[in-house]
Design brief:
Order of helices and strands of chain A: HHHHHHHHHHHHHH
Radius of gyration of chain B: 26 Å
CATH topology of the largest domain in chain B: MetI-like fold
Mean pLDDT of chain A: 78
Low-confidence stretches of chain B: 1-29
Number of domains of chain B: 2
CATH architecture of the largest domain in chain B: Orthogonal Bundle
Number of helices of chain B: 15
CATH architecture of the largest domain in chain A: Orthogonal Bundle
Shape of chain B: elongated
Oligomer: heterodimer
CATH class of the largest domain in chain B: Mainly Alpha
Strand content of chain A: under 5%
Chain lengths: 320, 316
């Protein structure tokens, strides 16, 4: 297990480096040239001298390998993500102040959607090809076809402007507001939950279905287990493995989904910051946020694999 | 009289030959129905899938033939300004007009041309790259597989939207670039699935037999691994097209869709839904309905294709 963990950690680090390299090289393909961000950071009519000075100040003109090494050194050995080109703040500060807000809505909606998708998936798989199964599948299919922004905007139109008058925007957006003013979070969290559901439900049903055709389920039935016991004792526990892997893979999607939701609901989370940073070519911020989410994802995958060993002893024995 | 197994088997004909055998023989004959025919039958059994195909064909005709039959102007902004802006549905503009005065019905056709074309081309690109990558990785195995899979992990661990956003802001927003960007980003998941297939198939008896008879790697990929994963590739491709159309829509929302005077469904939905509180329902709901149904229809076709290729459902 320890050897496996170490190998996984080294591989994860390699993946992290590849991501860093890929995202670092992207601005070099900038249509407006490598100095395009300067015109946004300064002004559209900045003088060539000012732009040149800006370039020198931000080490733009140094060769790629020097810049990459500097960045690598700074990030890996000093945990320093550099300074934003547009905001008077370090990238780390931006992350620290905005990520918790995103984590709140992302986590709450993830928990909610799993809590709904799991039992629904189990029941669907056990009653496959019945009216219930078809109805639920169709609802989720339709939900999958609705673009995130449209769903959110329609929710605002119907439940905020329309009937229930739920607040469309969590007003100060601090992470603790979820306790003081939970009503403000109903719409954004609800929208994100529905989106997650549409995505997760595709896998939940088939994960349980794959288990239900196994021999040990037939054995359990043969020895007289009740339907309930077969489903939740035998099928469900075995289906947890694939579900955990899916959740691990799902983490980056969670951030991506939150990005759109935050943009629509004007929720000041990290997704909102990313859209802004990308639009205004604030490269250090984009880089920093991307690296951070990569780290989250890698950690998520690693935890998923370890959890897999916990729920499924066979994986542990094989040692992988 | 219904010829159902057990009660027939008990009746003997005068010559003492159990009738059941004759019927079993009939059943084996029916298994000689060509494979594609059996698959088509399974597909046709799915009423929703047929409805979806009909709907998709209709939408294609609507988007690609419609503009030639419908009166509207979709490119001349000066002329469009002569019509009422945000006008409600009328005899002349069946679905009203948009903020620039373009006819909404014509706009839906016009935007659909872009969304569908871009979605399909980008979807095909994702499936081609994904197949090549997955096949090579799964089939070669060993170091190559580890390397390619770690690379894939790296791609997969960047949130797709972040990547999309960065690429679209970095590269100029032309139709070709949009196709390329969505195509280059969408293949990661596909590659995973195809690789899993390749891994499985290359260990199956027929591949091993071919290897034992001295077949080269390329031959096995071409004659065994690829043909046997075609079913999965086709299924994945359908979903890839749906995803590509959805990506494009999201870009439209972020204001990174196709620039004016051309348009796509995402940009249209975005523009319209920003003003939905003003009561211009005709700009949102008809298009939203058409759009969502397109995605749902593609998904149904994909599901039906998956069933059609599912060996366990064949009559044997």
């Amino acid at each position: 297990m320890i050897a496996y963990l170490i190998r996984r950690l080294i591989q994860s680090f390699a993946v992290f480096l590849i991501v860093m390299f890929l995202t670092f090289i992207l601005p070099y393909f900038e249509t407006g040239g490598i100095l395009a961000p300067a015109y946004i950071a300064l002004s559209t009519h900045a003088s060539p001298t000012a732009v040149h000075a800006w370039g020198v100040q931000h080490h733009i003109f140094e060769p790629f390998y020097v810049r990459f090494w500097q960045y690598f050194n700074q990030v890996v050995f000093h945990f320093n993500l550099g300074y934003s080109w547009r905001q008077t703040s370090s990238v780390w500060n931006i992350i620290v102040s905005f990520v918790p807000r995103t984590i709140w809505i992302a986590l709450v909606s993830l928990v909610l959607s799993v809590a709904i998708a799991l039992p629904v998936g189990v029941v669907q798989a056990s009653k496959r090809n019945t009216a219930f199964d078809y109805t639920v599948t169709n609802i989720f299919f339709i939900l999958y076809g609705v673009p995130a922004f449209l769903l959110s905007l329609l929710m605002i139109t119907w439940f905020s402007i329309g009937t229930l008058h739920l607040p469309p925007v969590p007003n100060d957006g601090s992470a603790l507001q979820i306790f003081t003013d939970p009503k403000a979070f109903i719409l954004p969290v609800g929208a994100l939950t529905l989106l997650n559901l549409a995505f997760l439900s595709r896998f939940m049903r088939s994960a349980v279905l794959d288990v239900l055709v196994q021999d040990y389920i037939r054995t359990a039935r043969a020895k007289g287990c009740s339907q309930r016991r077969v489903l939740f004792r035998h099928a469900f526990r075995n289906a947890l493995g694939p579900i955990i892997i899916i959740l691990g893979l799902f983490l980056p999607g969670l951030f991506g989904g939150a990005l759109i939701i935050e943009e629509v609901f004007n929720y000041p989370g990290i997704g909102y910051q990313t859209v802004n940073a990308a639009t205004y070519l604030d490269i250090p911020t984009v880089l920093g946020i991307t690296l951070l989410t990569t780290l989250f994802t890698l950690a998520g995958n690693l935890i998923a694999d370890i959890m897999l060993g916990v729920v499924n002893p066979r994986v542990r024995v094989e040692g992988r | 009289m219904t010829l159902h197994g057990d009660n027939i088997r008990d009746e003997l004909d005068p010559a003492g030959i159990p009738l059941g055998d004759v019927i079993d023989a009939d059943v084996t004959v029916s298994a000689f129905v060509p494979l594609w025919r059996q698959r088509l039958n399974i597909f046709l059994q799915n009423k929703l899938a047929i409805a979806s195909v009909v709907y998709l064909v209709f939408i294609f005709l609507f988007c690609f033939l419609g503009p030639h039959l419908w009166h509207s102007n979709q490119t001349d902004q000066a002329q469009a300004l002569l019509s009422p802006q945000n006008g409600p549905p009328s005899a002349h503009n069946w679905l009203g007009t948009d903020p620039s005065g373009f006819d909404e019905l014509g706009r839906i056709m016009f935007g659909g041309e872009y969304s569908l074309t871009l979605g399909m081309i980008a979807g095909v690109i994702t499936i081609v790259i994904g197949t090549l990558y997955g096949m090579v990785s799964g089939f070669l195995g060993g170091f190559v597989d580890t390397f390619l899979m770690r690379m894939l992990d790296a791609f997969l661990s960047i949130p797709v939207l972040f990547l999309l956003l960065t690429l679209v802001t970095v590269f100029a927003r032309t139709t070709t670039n949009l196709i390329a960007i969505i195509g280059v980003i969408g293949w990661f998941g596909n590659a995973r699935i195809i690789r899993g297939d390749a891994l499985l198939i290359k260990e199956l008896e027929y591949s091993q037999a071919a290897r034992a008879m001295g077949a080269g790697r390329w031959h096995i990929i071409r004659r065994h691994v690829f043909p046997n994963s075609v079913s999965n590739i086709v299924t994945v491709a359908t979903f890839a097209v749906a995803d590509a159309i959805l990506f494009l829509t999201t870009l439209g929302y972020l204001g990174l869709g196709i620039p004016l005077p051309a348009t796509d469904w995402g940009t249209m939905l975005n523009n319209a839904s920003q003003y939905i509180a003003n009561g211009y329902w005709w700009q949102v709901y008809p298009l939203a309905l058409i759009f969502i149904l397109v995605i749902v229809a593609i998904t149904y076709v994909g599901e039906a294709l998956r069933d059609a290729f599912e060996v366990r459902l064949l009559e044997r």
